[in-house]
Amino acid sequence: MKATISEVKNYVGAEVTIGAWLANKRSSGKIQFLELRDGTGYIQGVVLKNEVSEESWEKAKELTQESSLYVTGTVREDKRAPSGFELTVTSLEVIQIAQDYPITPKDHGVEFLMDHRHLWLRSSRQHAILRIRDEIIKATYDFFHDNGFTKVDPPILTGSSAEGTTDLFHTKYFDRDAYLSQSGQLYMEAAAMALGKVYSFGPAFRAEKSKTRRHLIEFWMIEPEMAFCDHEESLNVQENYVAYLVEEVLKNCQTELKTIGRDTSKLEKIKAPFPRMTYDDAIEFLKSEGFDDIEWGDDFGSPHETAIAEHFDVPVFVTEYPTKVKAFYMKPVPGRDEVVLCADLLAPEGYGEIIGGSQRIDDLELMKERYEQFHLTDPSYKWYLELRQYGSVPHSGFGLGLERAVAWICGLDHIRETIPFPRLLNRIYP
Predict the structure, then answer these.
(1) Which residues are in the Aminoacyl-transfer RNA synthetases class-II family profile domain (predicted)?
(2) Shared domain check, 73 and 195
(3) 167/207 same-domain check
(4) Does a structural domain hold residue 198?
(5) Do 176 and 290 have their domain in common?
(6) What's the domain range around 344?
(7) What mean pLDDT do residues 160-186 have?
(8) Mean pLDDT confidence for 319-338
């Protein structure tokens, strides 16, 4: 009977055949221990010389790291085994003997591992991280569908910038200029006017020449947008969504969290609602912590975000930033035009901003003023203005960077491990 490693719990006492790769091997006299992986998990195959044919014994001896094979054996429970099960091998069929596999159990430098990312993915740590990433993706779909959202896919090629910045990848769209999308938000606002509550989940590109451990050139964004929704209601959605992601990872990825050595006690504290701090209070707090260089009106950098987040065990919202440091489409706080109805959600443990969101301007005349202020005279912005002209309503939305969320939930030192093939400032290989 053919089975995967993740399925062997259903076949205790039965004989199964698993297609696998050899992750590692050790021997002790008349016993060979094969650490096998098949993409769904890991299991130890025990080869006893007295219980297999001479041919199978010799084949097992020939196996090298990352050799591929079909292995047949009897499943038995073993509480000492990481998976709780082992395989007593009865026979094996070699598919290919791998020669000189470059990533050995010894330590390798980061650049070497990045050059061999296509193979590094096979390691138990990288396997676990990508399984957790997949769980976060699944939880995202479940959360938004269960809460009445419709998934809408915005374009990747656009004729304008979502936030009016110059950090864009330029290309030619036949005889016109086009850009790789840095955000689907503007299009999601249009979709919300048609469908009420929507979200997108797709790639985004930012040509920032940044080398920090938090930045990727190509990354994935989850961007919900909600009609008839104010800023406070949006914050409630955000905190419930993030708490749900953590809950699902804790529930379904205990093996993976253990593999990467994550302190799950820190994740177990993540429950909504999250604390909130206004930008005004954050400035005062930072000054009290010795950040004498920060002044009201300045945007926060990584050290500032880390200092704020360190005082909380859970993510914290920093709200009502100055208008001048935020995007043109954000709605001012009533009676206080110098700040906007927005929030950044800062993750604990020094991981910085994982969500940025705001209530959007819904007043046509105010949006026209912003167009003039930000010199948005390009015809490619005409359609966005029209959203305020035909049935405008209060609406809010936010964007969560998938890789930053994965880095935080996994407790990783660098964002490069959160995505299968990271695109960094000086790396587009493999």
Answers:
(1) 130-430
(2) no
(3) yes
(4) yes
(5) yes
(6) 118-418
(7) 86
(8) 97
pLDDT of the residue at 111: 96
Q: Is the pLDDT of residue 139 over 80?
A: yes
pLDDT digit string, tens, across residues 35-90: 999 999 999 999 999 999 999 999 999 999 999 999 999 999 998 888 899 999 99
| pLDDT given for residue 103 in this prediction | 97
pLDDT in tens, 390-422: 999 999 999 999 999 999 999 999 999 999 999
Query: For the chain, how many structural domains are there in total?
Result: 2
Q: Tell me, what CATH number does 71's domain have?
A: 2.40.50.140
- CATH number of domain containing 161: 3.30.930.10
Q: Which of 27, 61, 96 is the last residue of a domain?
A: 96
Residue 168 has pLDDT above 70, yes or no: yes
